[in-house]
Amino acid sequence: MIKRKKKAGLFLASVLFTLALAACPCFCRAASQADEEETPEELAQLYARSAVLMDADSGRVLFEKDGNTARPIASTTKIMTCILALEEGKPDLVCSVSEKAASQPEVRLDVREGETYLLEDLLYSLMLESHNDSAVVIAENTAGSVEAFAGLMNKKAEEIGCQDTYFITPNGLDASDEGGTHSATAEDLARILRYCIMESPKREAFLTVTRTDSYSFTDLSGQRSFSLQNHNAFLSMMEGALTGKTGFTTDAGYCYVGALENGGRTFIVALLACGWPNNKGYKWEDTKKLMQYGINHYQYETITLDPSLPSLPVSGGAPPSGSLGSDALALLSSEPFQKELLMAGEEAVTAQVKLPAELDAPVEEGQEVGEILYRIGEFEVGRQKVEAAISVPERDLLWCLDQIIVRFFAGKNKISQ
């Protein structure tokens, strides 16, 4: 235990302890810092201008190349359109086609003004064939207008922690307005897909749509029939491929976001500006390279840590010994930290204990007095409360009188002996 001397006049000043947990056999390695690491050799030749490999379970970025630069994201936008439509609408919602929807450019289902479709059918059109007109029909019938739907998209992006994302259209066509350019970072795009497959109440429905190989339907009049094929080639490239969405526009270049499950681990890759014609295959090379890197280097480890804690001086506290010349100290406790974490061989967990310089009496047993933050690099993987292990009463008049009485009778006993 580390004892700290009481400092007069200093109340609740933050004191930070970073505990390098080298004594633990699992963590005899130095903690890695992402910004100090060199690019792994196998990822040094990525085509994408921006790339991210993310752990879908925790949301931790395992690798990034310019992952926080906002860029146009083309039809990868449609993962947000799909999940919002699933959450806000119902599969049997009847959707009518407006003039605006019918006038959208290629790639298109070729809907016609006045036709009606079921929302569920349009979602397959959106995600399997990436139809731009279907995206507008979905937006208008789910939220009332494209502008209102874009507002929902931006609100959802903010809710799930996106730092630099701005939606204007539901289909991802290049666009700008007074608020900015339709864009996102590779990290934000990965975070959106993580929400779609890990957190959304409609995650199973999202996976069902995006993993379907082919789909057929008609408009509600029954006069027109459509057959769709899934164009996400990654689904057949690697074992465990879960879902994904391609994209291309003149400004964005080729883009991709996808997920893969392997041995209980789920990885997400997001790529932006990954080549232009004639380099359509670059995105598949980068995706496979990043996924394989995650599979080769990251495994789950069960981490158990129990950092030692100092005692804290208690201002105005009654010392347990009863001696007025001694310090009143609060003993501290916390539960051991245990968690299963996806980690690479060179990584370590650090603990940061955040405590005040001293406490004010009285202190109650179990009172929360601080917290411990656990991190891999700069990414927080957990936190715990620090509590007082014992009560420390206030050194008030009653306490002083009680000590006088105790000493008085103790003195009389010595005399009588």
From TrEMBL:
Gene3D superfamilies referenced in this protein's UniProt entry, alphabetically: D-Ala-D-Ala carboxypeptidase, C-terminal domain, DD-peptidase/beta-lactamase superfamily
Full protein name: D-alanyl-D-alanine carboxypeptidase
Superkingdom as given in the UniProt entry: Bacteria
Taxonomic lineage from the root: Bacteria, Bacillati, Bacillota, Clostridia, Lachnospirales
Pfam families reported in the protein's UniProt record: Peptidase_S11
Alphabetical list of InterPro entries matching this protein: Beta-lactam/transpept-like, Peniciliin-bd_prot_C_sf, Peptidase_S11, Peptidase_S11_C_sf, Peptidase_S11_N
Signal peptide span: 1-22
Function, as annotated: Removes C-terminal D-alanyl residues from sugar-peptide cell wall precursors.
Molecular function GO terms recorded: carboxypeptidase activity
Family membership noted in the UniProt record: Belongs to the peptidase S11 family.
Organism: Claveliimonas monacensis
